[in-house]
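Continued from yesterday's entry.
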Amino acid sequence: MESLFAGMFSPEWFAALSGIILLDLILSGDNAILIALACKNLPEHNRGKAILVGGMGAVGIRIVCTLFATGLLALPYLEFVGGALLLYIAVKLLVDHKGEDKAEAPASFWAAIRTILIADFVMSIDNVLSLAGVANTVPEGKWSLIIVGLLISIPIVLFGAQFFLLLMKKIPALVYAGAALLGFTAAKLMVADKGLGAGLEPYSLFMEVGFVVLVLGLGYWLNHRSKGEAAKEG
């Protein structure tokens, strides 16, 4: 227990903590947007519950990933596969968005939770490694910094998701902006991959722009194709 709290409240500890808080604010934004996107089509009475369950599950995933951060850092191809999965999720969220103005069945509560947990695992890799990297600058206070950083991320993710959900209800076009952000994040993950990243680095800008265009274009095309098929059936 003493080793857990060793080094706390030193000037170096507070300096590292300020960096972790800044990282939480920056890196948790995309997680909050993801949760808001996944919960957007749920019935009103399930949205808050899904945000709470999904957000707490996402933080739990971060805790587990943090414990194995060193191993995750060394795994090749993990971030590349994760980026590909995130691309699929970004397009799926846009396609699921198509039915909000029609009397279709609402999204499933557990389907939303599953989407949040899978995507947050992928997106948390950078968050966890960044947090662990800053915490390692104060070896004696490493674990106390990691614990405090994770605790701080909980309200940021939960309240951030509520905030973005309200924005999306007022400005539906933000759903496309959120999906574009997920496409951009997918490109960043692939370029950071330990197995293939070095070869992809020269094309990072092309991939970032290309993935955003791919997500928006494919989502738009699938939505309009679905509307056309529905019109023919009607």
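--- second protein ---
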Amino acid sequence: MSFQSTPWQTVGPYYRLGLEPLYRTDIAPAQAQGERVQVQGQVFDGLGVPVSDAVLEIWQADAQGIYAHPEDPRHADHDPAFDGWGRVPTDEQGRFAFTTVRPGSVAGPKGQAQAPHLTVLVFMRGLLRAASARVYFSDAPGNAEDPILALVPAERRATLIAQAQGNGLYHWDVRMQGELETVFFDY
């Protein structure tokens, strides 16, 4: 018997078992205010193989750009039907899909407006800590002026932008390594 660690053994897939009761692919209930959107895509490893055991955690502001957090200065005006959080698993082909509302613009560094975006944490085998990314919408105003997106080299920004497919549907893939690797942020 070998006790040598392999990429599949470093973290999971067992962590996923504990998260299953917390899966939530419909982030915005029907009574939430705002335009409903669906984001779908796939998670790929460094070899381009779909990751069947990943979990994406999504955090976002409501349609008015207010977070469901008491430290948001506008918290009192937050949409009470929307808490801005979801946890989405991938299937056997690494696919994921979730529905939410298009978030409003939030204040960024030095009070500068940020383009509507989602914060996404990727959990998967081989990661000891979640990988953090953002998802911007290709048809959203303000992407060109977003202070965080501007920190990303121009040739890599597309990895953070979900492409509009029509009728509120967006496509965004996560590539953990390799060519077209998704930009991940270090906080």
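Helices lie at 15-19. DSSP finds one helix and eleven strands in the chain. Will compare against the first tomorrow.
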